[in-house]
Design goal:
7 helices, globular
């Protein structure tokens, strides 16, 4: 397409012997990293050419430093460019309780308190405009919830904002007149704010396809194109002008979001990011001299950062300025209240609305779903290259391969983490739902490899590997073109083959499948009434079920010293990993 922007630059990376990212180079911008013994980033430097950090006004030579508590939570970060330091305090549950911003100008601190269910109950904002403790301005905000952890009101001083919900836990309205509506999949489809209406559509895989703001005659329409979970193209038509203005925004990725280019303005914008993945500076890379022309700054929960130059911001994610929400694939996140606007679709844990367990400084959630596996790997292998194989079982604490009440067979998937922000989840499925005949006759069918970041799990095993091993596994996945077979080439078989492709020992093996006691009778009942020797035929059909299975995988994983267990119904993750 001749209208697509072409002003892009290659990005190159270097790594140390532990697979940790050392440098990232795009054009004239070099970003370098230093680490402590735990693999946590202690210093991040952006540098252009030989310019020393901080020596050029408006340039991009600067650095930030970071300190940590012994449990890995960030204690403080210092920005040389802004000459400011932010420190953090947490409670025993790892929840952020204090964010303290200090600079040569005004200081502020935000204190967070929580109820027994993990909901934010009070926020105290203390602003010190003159760096004098006798001139403090304090604002207290109180939050109330119903029995289902739905936010019902936010009160600041004498002002109260109330919320209503539908029976599925989706936020329907705010007392300021804003309203929301959803489809049968609980996806936000309409937002109304006074005379302005925004509509959203979605692809079959759940990702957003488009949004339209305005009315039939005058509106701003965006179509979105995805590569996996990454937004790569945004086609924008502005109908407020005649003739309409068209723009194609291209988002480029490597170690996270790198840049964007626009056809309408012929701009190529290079991003710098902090260690959380937030877009911090925007550089005019179309110019012969790299220089910062816009900045974004976010608090711990993602508030702030407003600028019209790019929709990308907090954690490198897309911001909808019409709602103030951040689009996180499965759900929309509201940084104003630090929570999602509707329930977790997989209903993980006890509270289905909180964001990152109220520890947004150290974790991100790009899917709006369960972050436990990410948390476990980040806690135990931060900055290291790893592969994780995870599985869910169909029957609690059992090797029974199929739950005949729900027809669930469990699932196995893999997670490859380069330790630099690049994380790949993949699982193998039949391309179409298996028929009973295909199940009983163990028929080969078309298979499909999909992004599996949303699947629940019961047990997992993580291995530390090299970049080369990770590359071999990713190459194997990208070229995997096999038929699916429920017994001989299923999701667990796929996971085992991925590990083998990188030379990693598989922590499970093939077994004779354990079936429920009533499996034979169910097969007999399914066979046609005129079928002779139905019992013999049933025995034949359910015999020879030998191979990998998610149920066996979960039980086998427990024998690995690197295993981790996720306790169902809770976000608590218990590990017996040997450090």
């Amino acid at each position: 397409n001749s209208s697509m922007p072409t002003a892009t630059q290659d990005t190159t990376y270097t790594y140390d012997q532990n697979g940790r990212l050392l440098t990232e180079t795009t054009g004239g911008l070099v970003t370098s990293y230093e680490y402590n013994n735990a693999g946590l980033v202690t210093k991040k430097t952006n540098k252009v050419g030989d310019v020393e950090p901080g020596s050029v006004y408006g340039g991009v030579s600067d650095f930030s430093t970071h300190t940590y508590y012994t449990n890995g939570n960030m204690m403080s970060k210092f920005s040389q460019a802004e000459l400011c330091e932010t420190s953090y305090t947490y409670d025993g549950a790892g929840r952020l309780t204090l964010e303290f911003f200090q600079s040569s100008g005004p200081d502020y601190q935000t204190i967070y308190q929580y109820d027994a269910s993990g909901n934010r109950s009070r926020q105290t904002y203390i602003f010190d405009p003159y760096n004098e403790t006798n001139d403090l301005f304090t604002t207290v905000t109180e939050y109330t919830y119903d029995a289902n952890n739905r936010l019902t009101s936010v009160t600041t001083g004498t002002d109260t904002l109330s919320y209503t919900y539908d029976n599925n836990g989706n936020m329907l309205s705010e007392s300021n007149g804003k309203t929301y509506s959803y489809n049968v999949l609980n996806q936000l489809v309409t937002f109304v704010n006074g005379e302005y209406t925004t509509t959203y559509t979605y692809l079959p895989n759940g990702l957003r396809a488009s949004k339209t703001m305005g009315n039939d005659q005058n509106h701003l329409h965006s179509d979105f194109v995805w590569d996996g979970d990454d937004l790569v193209y945004e086609y924008v038509r502005n109908m407020y002008y005649y003739p309409p203005l068209d723009n194609c925004i291209v988002y480029n990725y490597g170690n996270g979001l790198i840049s964007q280019s626009n056809t309408e303005t012929n701009e190529y914008i290079l991003f710098t990011k902090n260690t959380h993945g937030d877009v911090s500076d925007m550089l005019n890379a179309s110019s012969t001299t790299l220089a910062v022309f816009a900045e974004k700054e976010f608090d711990a929960f993602g508030n702030g950062g407003s600028t019209g130059y790019s929709a990308m911001g907090y954690a490198g994610q897309y911001h909808d300025y019409e709602t103030g929400f951040i689009y996180l694939r499965a759900r929309y996140y509201s940084p104003a209240v630090g929570r999602f606007i509707n329930e977790d679709p997989i209903r993980d844990g006890l509270n289905w609305y909180v964001y990152c367990g109220n520890n947004p400084v150290n974790y991100t959630d790009s899917t709006g779903l369960d972050e436990d596996l990410d948390k476990y790997v980040n806690d135990n292998y931060s900055g290291k290259v790893t592969v994780t194989i995870a599985a869910s079982r169909p029957v609690e604490n059992s090797r029974i391969a199929v739950n005949l009440d729900t027809m669930d067979v469990g699932h196995t998937f893999v997670r490859i983490d380069y330790g630099d922000g690049r994380v790949i989840y993949r699982g193998f499925y039949p391309a179409n739902t298996l028929s009973t005949d295909e199940i009983l006759t163990k028929t080969n069918v078309d298979g499909i490899v999909v992004d599996d970041a949303t699947h629940d799990w019961n047990a997992a095993v993580t291995y530390e590997i090299t970049v080369e091993q990770a590359d071999d596994m990713v190459s194997f996945i990208d070229n995997y073109d096999s038929e699916y077979n429920m017994v001989t080439n299923n999701c667990t078989t796929f996971g085992a083959k991925v590990l083998e492709s990188g030379g990693v020992e598989v922590p499970t093996s093939e077994h004779k499948w354990t079936l429920p006691a009533n499996a034979k009778q169910m097969v007999v009942d399914y066979l046609p009434s005129e079928k002779l020797f139905k019992g013999v035929v049933a025995n034949y059909l359910i015999s020879g079920l030998y191979g990998y299975s998610p149920a066996d995988a979960v039980q086998d994983f427990k024998n690995s010293p690197q295993h981790v267990l996720k306790y169902g119904g809770s976000t608590y993750v218990a590990s017996n990993k040997h450090k």
